[in-house]
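Running low. Got one?
___
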Amino acid sequence: MMKILTERAKEMGVKILLQTPVKKILKQGDRVTGVVAEDRPGEPIQANAKAVIIATGGFGDNPDMIKKYTGFEWGRDLFSFRIPGLAGDGIRMAWEVDAAPTEMTMEMIYGMPGECDPALHETFRQPHLMVNLLGERFFNEEIMPNTTFTGNAISRQKNRTAFLIFDENVKKHMETVGYDFVSVVFPFTKVENLDALIKGAFDKGYKHVFMADSLEELAAKTGIDPEGLKKTVDEYNRFCEKGHDDIFNKSYRYLRPIKTPRFYAARLLPSAYGSLGGIKINHRTEVLDKDWKKIPGLYAVGTDACSIYGDSYVFILPGNTTVSYTHLTLPTNREV
């Protein structure tokens, strides 16, 4: 898509300057009149314009802004994508010319934190037993393929932490029969050798996957409340035996008991595609000030402005954060 848009822009005579970040938005009176950018040698370039469009991709690569405006601390309770250069500079420059701020959130998903083998990651994103640090279930695990719903649910638990748990029999099922859910991003259909994957993670010092010979040992290793875990596992096993989840109504096809050692668990924490919100706009993508009056000549699109669905990515319309709720389709690069 970006290739086609770029080719069309060049046909129309658009000049694209790479590695030329904007440093300041120019304003005369109440109207925006252009920008000041910096070229590769560091020299300023002034571009006068009838309109300026802010499309700088939010602040997903700025841990300070993430902590200040969303309450998450990157590397502790958030392990989101960090695309280099998306530091919130467009939002900051908009505020400098009196743009009104909006609520700022992270575009929530979830996963095992840090770097781990994708096959290991997908093994622990299957609809088995999920609990929080209190040892309690908190949602229907068959919702897990919707990473937004799951990320939002995990973010509301103690320490924003959850654990997916299964036993030896479930492990063998995933190695022989295969996964219940197959990711379109990492399309593994089964795990080939989970013991080898876990050993590889341990050898690299990865600390978010666990094995134990008893539930008591698993609780000690993970920090899950042991009494809460035992109560939940006993209850869950009863649901599995009768084929009905009395609490969350999870489909019987995903109800597999947690009884046979060894027991396996992985820590799951919130992640995010990036940030959402920052600049208030109207339905024409015109930037508004604190009195809800438009700032002539200034527009904002994409994640810099998108707050139309809170922190929940809408999978029925993939890519919609890049256009906000505008009637236009605009490229989202940060150069002049």
